[in-house]
Every structure is written in C-alpha cells, then in structure tokens.
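Forwarding these from the shared drive since the link keeps breaking.
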Amino acid sequence: MGTAFESNSAVCIFPDECSKSEGQILKLMHPKENQTCIAYFSTETKSLFELLSVKEKYISWFVDDNVLGDTQLKVGTLLDPIFMIIPYLLRNVDRYSPLAQILVDEKYPSVIILEDLLSESDLSCVANVKPSLDKIIKFNKEKTLNWLSEKVDKVAAAMKKCGVSPGFNSTLSDKEYKKYACGIVSDYISRSLSVDLQEKLGVKLSVDCDEEKPAKKPKLNHRVDQDACKPAKSSMPKGKEKAQKLTKGQKQLASVNTKGMKSMSSFFKKVEK
C-alpha cells in the first residue's frame, strides 16, 4: 500500500515506509536521457525516489476530507542511487578521481547528495575503489555489466512472480521475461551500455522510434507532378462532344411551343406609373 498526501500543486503517492514529514525535492540528471529528473529524498530513510507524473485531462482526487480538482498525480518509485552515479563515471573512465570531484555539476548541484548515499560497497558494484576517506574511484565496465545483469534477473523474476505480462501474451518464456526486464533496466542507462548489456544477456531489443531512419522518398519528375494536377482534357474531337442526356421532364419542357408566351423575367419588371 502507499501513502498519499497533498503538496502545493500535486497529489503524491509514496510507499508506506517513506516519511512524508521530512524530505526534499531534488533536480538531478536522468541517467539515460541527460535531462532533468525530479526526485524526492527522504531524510528519514535515506532513500531516493523518482517522481513520475501521471497526466490526465480531467482528474480529481479525494485526500482526507478534501476534493482536489485539476491536480497532478505524482508517484514516487524507489530509485537505486547507483544508477545515478554511472553517467558521471562515464565522463572520465581513464583515471581515478575522488567521488566529490566526480559529482561536481553546475547544472545539477544537488547530485552531491550521492556522496552520502553511496557506500564503498555500493561504488564497488560499478567501479574500482581505492581504500581512502575520499572514496577514490574509477569506472569498471565489467563490474557495471555484471551488476546490471543482476538487476535484469531480479526484475524478470519479479515480473514472473507477479504475473506481469506485456501485451496479451500470458505465456512468456524465461528469455522473453529477460528481454522485457532488459528493456526496463535500459531506461536508466546510456544507449551504449544498453547495447553491451543486450550482447551480454543474449537478447535484442527493438529499435527505438527516434532511431529509425526515415525511408528515402522516391524522386518525382516535377513535370509529371504538374501535369497530374491539371484537369483531364476530353479525348473527343472539338465540336463532337457527346450531348448530355436529358431527363423525361426536360424532354417534355423542350417540346412545349413557347411562341407568344412571356418570359419569366417580364413579370419582375418595374411597372411604370
């Protein structure tokens, strides 16, 4: 079960173990997209949560005795801080550096909080760590892929246990579960790491839509295009176009003798006084 509470502009839902009384909203760099990731840091549990927005056009919420209309819903999902350190390690893969130096980011200064969240044991999952109070580390690709593989296995096992099945197929093989789990984990790592992870696991994810190259348009003859836009000409010789077929009523009107009859327009002439 989760706990819901109202903030200034949104209704937020967090796991019960997360305290709503003490915490702070942080802006961090998303580990995959290199864009802003809104996170909530619980100072009581020392946990990091990603705030995911649920957007609906018409939405209202009952919170305690209040009805909140046109209010965003944000769901806090637990986020492993090790994912957040990987893109910073990838910036400098050739040398050891103190963790505090690696986490210097003018755009996202709040990332320095990872220094307190990540222990040497955590860092050793994705880096070589020199024994030091400054946590001097260097990226290790082999360790990182092994750690990501374990994450994929845990996600796949959780999906299978809970009966989660993408689409309408309810009978997935272990390899298919692993493929979908790899896709979920790949949402939090760089594209190049995802490719290496797929190779390690022996799975292949479908190409993202934004990666697909648009098909080349056939080269059209400009003259042909202009001619195609023109109205078609009659193939009949001039003066010999086929006469329009008259209806029965039109034939009867045509056969009436109109000699001596006034025209219809004569009835609408101005009467001279």
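-- next protein --
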Amino acid sequence: MEVSIVSVHGAKQLATIVADPAMTIGELKNEIRQKKGHLQPERQELRLEPRSKGLDDKVTLEQIDIKNGSQLFLKDLGPQVAWKTVFLAEYAGPLFVYLWVYTRPWLLYGDTKETEKPLVVDVAVACWSTHYLKRILETLFVHRFSHATMPLRHLYRNCAYYWIFALYVAYHINHPLYTAPSEKQVYASLAFWLFCETGNFSIHWLLRNLRPAGTKERRIPKPTGNPFTTLFNVVSCPNYTYEAGSWIAFSIMTQCLPALLFTLAGFYQMTVWALGKHRNYKKEFKDYPRNRKSIVPFVL
C-alpha cells in the first residue's frame, strides 16, 4: 500500500512511501529518510493529524488504521544533538565559570590580596565543583537516556541558563565584600547538602538499573535495600526532591540571594518535569502506588 507523507505546515506533499501494514512508525521514518536525506529519524515526528500528538515508533500502521492512500503528517523537529552532549555542555560550563571566578577574582574585582577569604567561600566552591563533577560523571557512566536526541536550538537556551546563573552566583559568593554566615550554619547546611547529594546519586543508580541497557523499557521504580531510596514510597521523582534539597542547603550555607534564585528557578522546572512523569506513571501503570506525590512528600 502507499502512504502519503505530508508536512504539518501547509499540507505540502513530502513523499509517498510504499509500506506494509505491519511496518512500524520507526521503520517508516527510515523509509522517509531514504527519500529525504536531511530528515534523520530523530528529527521526524509523525502524526495522524497536523495538531495531534506524535506517534510512538513501536506502533504499526495497521494498529492506527492506516490504509492504502492514507496520509500521515510530518513535523520536522530541526537539527538534533545527542542528550549526552547536551548534559556535558550544560554541566561543564558552570564548573568552568565558577572555578574561573574563584581562582581569578582580580579579573572581576581588581586587587583582592588584602581581603581575607571566609571559610564558606572555600566550602561553597568545593560543593559546587563536586555537584557538577558528579553530574558529568553520571552523564558519562550512569544515565541511560530514553530519547537519543533533542533539538539543537534548546542547547543554547539550556547552556545560557546554567552558565549565566553560575557567573551570577560565583560573582556574589567570591566578592571581597561578601558577608559570611556563622560556621554553625555553614556546617549544618553542609551536612544536609552531603545527605541530599548522596540521595540524588542513589536514585540515579536505581533508575539506571531499572532500565536494561539499549532499551526504552519502563518499570515502576521501588525502594531497594539502600535507605536513600525509601523516598520512592512517597514521591515519584525523589531524584528531584534530593536535588532541590541540595540547592536549598547550598543557599542556606552561603546565605546568598542569587543562589536562592537559582534554587527557586530549578525547583520550578523540576516540579514541571516531576508532575509530567507522575502523570505518565499513573497513565502507564494501572497498579501505580496511589499514595505517591510527584516531588514534595505528602504535598505536591
């Protein structure tokens, strides 16, 4: 049978594919690439209608009632970049920018030789560097991505967010006129930061083992013998809960308003992601635990 591939913009005919009813959407995308070389499968989104949702790659044409002469609408998602590359660019930037300000303060503030550096400044750079080094190593060796790529245009937006905030936070904490909080506040916050960072890694490790390598398989995440994973009893995305906790700790430790603004911006975005994942879990798994919230235990 023949299937017409039409652009979602203006209903322009892009290609006609000779297909078998048992062909999957993923296989159809490969056929489209044979006719339109610039349209790699990763940048294609096929739809039943111009404004409907994208079709899953595993769905067959027969399952969505595609017959001879039927149309499918294609949205070009634009040039793509690997998720691993995105993460590495996002996380290497803040690490470089913060260390640049910390090790070369004279570039921003002039001569600072006579200024005594508070202990919290050294603690803050250690926490910041450890956090982003952990993220880079997790990207390389822990994370398994359900999607191979994302639109290239998002890379610039994401990097700008992380890199500019890094400069904003580093500028204030390393400033010669920075006023440090008490050591008790610093050490108490540091302890909570270490707790949350350990919890965040524990959840990432559990999620890695939940998805077999090379697959997009999804299962219900459940606590293991690791006590940090017990947070799965009350929230769907404890990795975001721990992440938010570590940035709250960092903000209290440094008593820095830009750090708090970065925390609030991050928490908002993580909440959006967590709510979406929570909805998907409940939709996909009929036996999904009803007592779980998305990110904040018993609240949200």
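Residues 209 and 293 are 22 Å apart (CA to CA). The chain has eight helices and six strands.

- D.
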